[in-house]
Amino acid sequence: MGRARRAAAVSSLTSLCLAGTAIPAEAASGSLIITAVDRSGHVTSAHAWAVNTGTHRRYSFSTAKPRTLPNGHYGVAVVIAPNGTNPGATQTIGSRTFTMKGGRVTLRFDARQGKRISMTTNTAHPYRVMYSADICVASDYLGSIANNDSVVNYDGVTNYAIPTSNRSVRFSATVEWSPTRSGPFYWAIGKPTYGIPSEPGFSWTHASFAKLSVKVLKGTVREPDTTLMMLPWASCRRGADSFATFTAPRTVTAYVTPGQWAPSIIYSGGVTGVNGVPYYKAGKTYHLTFTRKS
Length: 294
Fold this sequence. Notes:
mainly beta, 1 helix, 25 strands
């Protein structure tokens, strides 16, 4: 399965989960103006998300022009990249909270203040590391360093986060890595921090994992390419963009940090998952079987 097809499948799942609802006009509102500065010091258009922490309504918009928002308390996250939201470019994420009381609120995010995001795994030289770095305010997911509302760290790309001591802002990450192209495959969630620290990052060098033996049957699908995805069921997580691809039939080994995960496979013509959202315990081994159906 090609990257484009994978991205389309992930985008479709993401859209179902995160699609906004129509927002009725409200008389009491104000204007949010965001200035974004890239790492070279130039003012640029960036992508932003805002969430009203009282109503939980979520807004997605460009900083190129002011955004009208109903009065209330908000969290906002901004992603700054040299080439817009190109996932192959260095990106910087920042977040703040503010209160809209009519009139105008002006915020500035400067990517030059960003600090490198580090992800340390239990593998000295992993074949690849993919991660989403996520921002939440209170119980509301805001956004990630992202392409089309998602983040994938492509090999060799350095991303940054702007530190903040605002404890209403939570920073977390979901990471997938493998020591070789054929596995085993690791998925991990970083414990959210309150605020974004001056050295943003997470480490799993000594983490405990649950082991999953995942058997994928060829089934009635002719094309052998199959993608295994593990969606974490936790607060302040994105995670839908990390995946492991292989050809079926095959049994692969995966490891996950303790907690609830929703495993599924994507293949030509379909998606197959499990019932419910299983809880996986550290040190335990679990056996899963998927059959591909056309």
